[in-house]
Amino acid sequence: MTITAPREAAGFADLQLRPELLAALSGLGYEEPTPIQREAIPHLLDGRDLLGQAATGTGKTAAFALPVLERLERAGEEGARPRALVLVPTRELAIQVSEAFHRYGRRMGARVLPVYGGAPIGRQLAALRRGVDVVVATPGRALDLIGRDALRLEELRTVVLDEADEMLDMGFAEDIEAILAETPAERQTVLFSATVPPRIEQIAGRHLRHPVRIEIERPEREAGEPPLVRQRAYVVDRAHKPAALGRLLDVEAPAAAIVFCRTREQVDELTEMLNGRGHRAEALHGGMTQDQRDRVMGRLRAGTAQLLIATDVAARGIDVEHLTHVINYHVPSDPDSFVHRIGRVGRAGRQGVALTLAEPREHRMLRTIERATGLRITVEKIPTVADLRARRLELLRAALRESLLNDDLDPYRAVVESLAEEFDVMEVALAAVKLAQEADGVAADEEEIPEVVPRRPREDRPGRRIARRGGPDAGVTRLFVGLGRRHGIRPQDLVGAIAGEAGLHGRDIGAIEIADRFSLVEVPEATAARVIDALRRTTLKGQKAVVRRERFDRADRRPR
Ligand code: AMP
Q: Which atom number of ligand 1 is nearest to the Cα of residue 311?
């Protein structure tokens, strides 16, 4: 086991960012730029247009947010008109992106406003009047605010189209065109998209000037000797990640594992959480001195520590021979770093295991990694409480067998003999097993970790087309929404509301039919109840709608 010096690569300090931004990044525990950040930030600081192919999980948000903030003059000025507009497909993303801007730009006084449908417009109008530097908006609400003369774009320097493919899938193409028509011709335009189909090329061709192109996916990359590692991934909501990690560690019971996180803060938090659960975990990150790191590695080598929680930077160059598992607590930001991470196990011909926890939005990054590395990653279900119990019993059985074969059990003979006068020996053994299991720290209150409905791959997904007559496909449910064309409803309004309010991915929403007085929309059966509930709670074009599963009249198969 050795520690070598980290590989030389441009750090944040090389990126010509102002001290307030650098301080914010270090405060957040970011140790180094991700590849997309390293490549995109210098061009964006130069004012170049950019077409970036990057999915969630690559660090793309900071890749555009940091240059936008760096280029802000007079941040926080009273009554200022926005200098940057970021268009995003969903409310969820609007909030997430504006929080990111806030975290990075707070120290320089930057004011960021998320605007999206479904939220009271009054507060957004007031904030715009007071002055904002950056607006992060869904297209529909942005157009609405432009129409009211509340969102004034004449001083914009930068427009970012984030998750552009998703926005097109959700039917926002016209809205985007209309918004761009309101922006100054000399603006900087930045487009990020997970995929670059012809429709995205067309938009880029029309609106970007001599763009720099950056791809994070390099499928033609030379695939070296693939390591002997079994790849498994689990899709879980962020809120359930700590529990999911705990469950996996309990079931896998690794002899020695390394758990990768993105930031120092996450390393510290996770280390504390795992130690609290009875694991022997040690943190390793770039904020520690060489001396501290050496001691951590010493404890891992001696077996007094079983888990190493680390950032990529800190783990670079370490070599732990008996490592059995690599766990990606976050999806790595690019395929190369995935390969580096899993290269820590499966050495010397032994089989290793690599487990990756992905949030639903990061599902696509898994496919990107698969394509770029040629490795197969199977998505599996998080073990249930029953799986965990079965596994613990299996481990206990193995331990008992070991003890029967090897230990001197004579000192306990008197206990069993005296009980055997009163009970059957089998009963005595059962009670002993029960006590042993409980002493092992079996938590009786383990809760199930909810399963996330995986997204269907693109090929299987129904496009935005007119609904067929008759019932929808298996696994798909058609919902009746009591508002239609005469209420001003368009497909993108339904998609926006469902994605925004029920958290569905745009492409999971199937065929939509808008009739005069009602609409029909297909959603995955597993999400139907959530969508109905969310749509009932919100408004569409300011109106409450009756929402229910579609019922058929058998005679003509028209909804009743
Ligand atoms: P994104 O791909 O923009 O959705 O970012 C994914 C996650 O990575 C977010 O939680 C960011 O806070 C985090 N992140 C972005 N850049 C870095 C970095 N350089 N180091 C560590 N974490 C980062």
A: 21
What digits encode the pLDDT tens for the residues 270-285? 999 999 888 889 999 9
CATH number for the region 229-383 comes to 3.40.50.300
Nearest residue (by CA) to ligand 1, atom 6, is: 57
Is 335 in contact with 217 (CB distance < 8 Å)? Answer: yes
Q: Does domain 2-216 have CATH number 3.40.190.10?
A: no
Q: Which of 259, 249, 303, 258 is nearest to 279 (CA)?
A: 249
SS3 string of 138-151?
CHHHHHHHHHCCCC
Structure confidence at residue 552 as a pLDDT band (50, 70, 90):
low
pLDDT tens figures, 2-19? 333 344 467 899 998 999
pLDDT digits 0-9 by tens, 363-414 = 888 888 888 888 888 899 999 888 888 888 888 898 899 899 888 999 999 9
Nearest partner of 60 among 99, 33, 92, judged by Cα: 33
CATH code for the domain defined by 463-549: 3.30.70.330
Domain assignments of the chain as residue spans, ordered by start: 2-216, 229-383, 387-439, 463-549
Query: Would you say the pTM of this structure is higher than 0.85?
Result: no
Residues in contact with ligand 1 by the CB-under-6-Å rule are 30, 33-34, 37, 56-62, 262-263
Q: DSSP string spanning 180-205?
A: HTTS-TT-EEEEEES---HHHHHHHH
Give residue 135 CA to ligand 1 midpoint distance, Å. Answer: 20
CATH topology agreement for domains 2-216 and 463-549: no
**How many other CB atoms sit within 10 Å of the CB of residue 77?**
14
